[in-house]
Every structure is written in C-alpha cells, then in structure tokens.
C-alpha cells in the first residue's frame, strides 16, 4: 500500500500542478488579449480629431459595404469619425433580423453595456450588440447572442477577424473605463445616402429603412448620439436640446428627402441587392486569396453570389429642359433692328409692316364665282373632254 501511495500521490500532484499551470497560463493569455492596449496608430487618429481613448464612442455598421466605423466624442461634445474597419463576414440578406436561426445580421439601433463584453469568447474576443431591442420585440422578432467577434465565420454576427475584434474590444473597454455606461451600435443595410435610398426604393424594407435614415441623418447633423425609443411599432427620435442642432437636422433631412425625390424624377434605376448568404469586404477577400490566416470562414462558396443587383426599374435618361432665353436676346430677335429681319426673300413684306387691306370690290358677275377649270373650259382655254363611249367590258374579254 505504501509503495502504491508513493507512486500514485506524486503522479496525482504532478497532474494537478500541470493542470493548474495550464489554467493559469490560459487565464493569463485571456487577460492579456482582453487588456491589450489600443494600437498607437489608432490613438494618433483620435488625437488628430481632438479626442482620446477615454472619450465615449458610437459604432456604425454598414452591411452592403461590409464596414464598421468607430466614432468618438471630441472636446466640443460632437461625435467625429475615427477609423473604419472591414468586416470579414456577415450573413443573410439586406434587411432586419426577424427570428432565431434566420442567419440575418440585424439592422437598427442597439445598446452595448459593459456587461455585454465577453473576454472569454470562443471567437477570441466579443461583445453582444443587444439584439433584440425594443423595436425588434415590438415586431415579435426572436433570437439572441448576436455578437461582434473574431475569426471570419458568421451565423448572424459581425465576424471581424481576431486582430480587428481585439482592437474594437480595447476601444470599447477604454470608453467604459472613461465613464461611458453604454455605447450605441447603429446597424444599417448600406450607407444611408440619398442615392442609395432612391436606388433601393422598391425593396420591401424601404419603409423600415426610412426610419433608419431619419436616425442616421439626425446623428450626422447634430453630432449627438440619437435618443431612440419606439412608438406605434416605429423608431422615434427625441429632438435635440440644442435648437441650432435641431434646425441643422431639419434642414439636412429635408435636403436629403428632396434629393431622393429628384433622383427618382430624373429616372434613377431601382434595384434589389441579393445575397446567397451575406458578404465580405474586398480587403479580406484579397488577403484570404493571398493565404493570410483569418480562422474559419463560413460558407465561402456563397460569397461568389454576394451583392448581386436585380434591376427592378431601368434607368431612364431625362434630358434637362433648355434654359430660358434671356429677355435681351428674344427682344433683339423680334425688334426692327434684328439681323433676322433683314434676311428675307426679296419683296417679302412682314404682316406687321404691310398696310391694312382694303375692302375688295364686290362680285359683279356670276362667272366670277365658278371654279377655275369650269371657267377655263367655258372660255375655250381647255379642249372639250373626250366623252366617246368606251368598248364594253364583255367584248374586251371575248376578244382575248
């Protein structure tokens, strides 16, 4: 028994020590990646825009362009763009997520609190964007655990690769450390420009996208994080407390609405953009072809059919109306000294220059009212017509 214990106990202790060492190393590795500093180049971009690592952030995602933007609040209290990151993989189609398992990457306005940060993610580092939000729940949408994470595989998430996910994680971490309780994550189908809205005007989601467009315009006009709520199943946005900023939003939104109407009136094409299963930024597509490691890539075969446009209404070219003729020009055209008045056929007299016609002499003879041919025949100017009877048709046929 003692020999057995002498053999077993050291082996058990060695195993425990090895396991503890492995766990300690793993924990240290996790702590290291979760606490990695923001890259110096990104900090330099922040400084150039008048902000710093501890300032609040807003993230904006665009599915069609496969990009996520980081915006930070500067010293003047306005959010400014800092850096744009390429998305390695998102899934589904353009449009909102509606149910669990539909592979749709969500669209809308979401909130990310510190508790939604996951340093122990299976996909390097991640944070939950907060789907479903109040709007999604109002429409009966289901699902959960929609993340921004590492590697390049998506089932409704924003897959960024490990390096990009780590940088986004560090930027959010420092914003929380600076006192921000939660940041807004805005997800759009595409950049919400007037041209894109006009181009996708026949899409079944256009009414929903117009709501997102209002929130996007408000953010860009005011530089403030939109205060979002849901009323009657629609997104609602509180007006800015700053009257000047609210006026700036009103002007921008009206200009954008008018621009969309003008593009449609000018004959802009309408399309539906379709996907087999989501898309990928061209940057990552090129790096993957070069052999750059990005981890697992979900459904790579589907990327060949990403972003196919189906024309619903062909573009029509509408020529602009000719400019109006200046008064000085058309006055010269019709004036008595106009060169055009001297370029006439000889003996031509314009009506306005002729004397008013006098009354003609009344008709005094009946012959004056006859047709000209009849008058010529009567006056022997034309020979009399030959009215000799022609050969009957029956005889002509019989002679053949």
From TrEMBL:
Signal peptide feature range: 1-24
Entries under InterPro entries matching the protein: LD_TPept_cat_dom (IPR005490), Transpep_catalytic_dom (IPR038063)
UniProt KW keywords: Cell shape, Cell wall biogenesis/degradation, Peptidoglycan synthesis, Signal, Transferase
Span of domain L,D-TPase catalytic: 57-184
Domain of life: Bacteria
Any single biological process term in GO: regulation of cell shape
Annotated pathway: Cell wall biogenesis; peptidoglycan biosynthesis
One example GO MF annotation: carboxypeptidase activity
Catalytic residues identified in the record: 149, 157
Entry-linked PROSITE patterns: LD_TPASE
One Pfam assignment: YkuD
Keyword NAD: no
Family: Belongs to the YkuD family.
Name of the protein in its database record: L,D-TPase catalytic domain-containing protein
Native source organism of the sequence: Methylorubrum populi (strain ATCC BAA-705 / NCIMB 13946 / BJ001)
């Amino acid at each position: 028994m003692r020999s057995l214990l002498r053999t077993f106990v050291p082996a058990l202790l060695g195993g425990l020590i090895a396991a503890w060492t492995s766990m300690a190393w793993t924990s240290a590795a996790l702590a290291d990646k979760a606490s990695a500093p923001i890259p110096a180049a990104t900090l330099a971009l922040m400084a150039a825009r008048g902000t710093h690592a501890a300032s609040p952030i807003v993230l904006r995602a665009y599915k069609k362009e496969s990009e996520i933007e980081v915006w930070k609040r500067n010293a003047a209290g306005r959010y400014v763009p800092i850096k744009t990151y390429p998305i390695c993989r998102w899934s589904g189609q353009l449009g909102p997520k509606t149910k669990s398992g539909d592979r749709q990457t969500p669209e809308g306005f979401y909130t990310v609190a510190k508790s939604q940060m996951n340093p122990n993610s299976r996909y390097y580092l991640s944070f939950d964007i907060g789907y479903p939000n109040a709007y999604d729940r109002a429409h009966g949408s289901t699902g959960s655990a929609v993340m921004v994470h590492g590697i390049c595989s998506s089932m409704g998430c924003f897959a960024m690769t490990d390096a990009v996910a780590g940088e986004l994680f560090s930027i959010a971490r420092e914003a929380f450390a600076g006192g921000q309780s939660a940041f807004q994550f805005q997800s759009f189908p595409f950049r919400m420009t007037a041209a894109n809205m006009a181009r996708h005007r026949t899409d079944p989601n256009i009414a929903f996208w117009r709501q997102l467009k209002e929130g996007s315009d408000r953010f860009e006009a005011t530089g403030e994080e939109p205060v979002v709520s849901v009323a009657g199943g629609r997104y609602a946005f509180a007006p800015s407390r700053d009257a000047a900023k609210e006026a700036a939003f009103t002007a921008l939104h009206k200009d954008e609405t008018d621009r969309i109407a003008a593009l449609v009136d000018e004959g802009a094409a309408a399309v539906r953009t379709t996907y087999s299963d989501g898309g990928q930024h061209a940057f990552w597509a090129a790096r993957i072809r070069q052999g750059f490691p990005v981890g697992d890539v979900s459904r790579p075969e589907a990327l060949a059919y990403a972003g196919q446009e189906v024309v619903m209404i062909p573009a029509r070219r509408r020529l602009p109306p000719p400019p109006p003729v200046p008064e000085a020009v058309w006055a010269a055209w019709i004036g008595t000294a106009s060169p055009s008045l001297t370029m006439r056929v000889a003996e031509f007299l314009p009506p306005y220059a002729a004397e008013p016609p006098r009354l003609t002499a009344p008709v005094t003879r009946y012959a004056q009212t006859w047709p000209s041919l009849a008058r010529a025949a009567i006056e022997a100017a034309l020979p009399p017509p030959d009215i000799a009877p022609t050969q009957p048709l029956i005889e002509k046929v019989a002679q053949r």
